[in-house]
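Single-chain item
Fold in token form
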Amino acid sequence: MAKKFYVVWAGRETGIFTSWDVTKRSVDKYPQAKYKSFATEAEAKAAFAQSPASSIGKSTSAKTTSRSSTVKPAGASTSTKSLGANQAVLSQFDVVIYTDGGCEPNPGKAGSGMAIYRKGELSELWFGLFNPNGTNNTAELNALHQALLVAKKVLDAGETVQIMSDSQYSIKCVCEWAYGWKAKNWTRKSGEIANLEIIKPAHALYEAMKADLVLQHVAAHIGIEGNELADRMSIHAIDQQHKGFSQFSAPLDISKILALRTG
């Protein structure tokens, strides 16, 4: 694996580091931590001399650089709440993945959906994981897990990626709460942890990629196309009772897909 240089603008220690373990100790659970990885020392030095806003969320000459701004980029403090902010995300990342889950009623018939954008354009839609006795939380977690699997392939190909989920529960489970549960052997005093069969593998993926992955909350049903399409796919999964997770094979006519039943 190529050597990386980690710039920490805000953390317990600031500077340029070559060890992810050292960087993690500096930024993990540090309020408003800001950091990013670079492929070369020259890029790292140039970035450290400027404000973090000059680098975070911006492309560099190396496709393998990270766009994370915090160890918990997850919507605990960050959310895309406008069409303009969403458009900025689409222009900053090679791949943007939107996820959603639906359940009718809750608990009841559940399904998951995903919309993938490449270079700002809709590329693929996915649907499935139908569960006749599911919950909305389970459906949202399933969708996020599938997005993490796609994100790994994207990062392995040297591209940048952001995941957009409208489920604060799913994001917090995978990116925040899982650390405490794992430290206690996946237990908690208040009782059983729901959906561990999804949370464990999703958290393992996130933990392995978080230095190079941005996972962010997106406001639901405010007209953000990717979120709306993922929603339609989750309901399509319920209507089709599709238990696998498959690519939507019909033409990607966005207006027709948005006219499908919503969750």
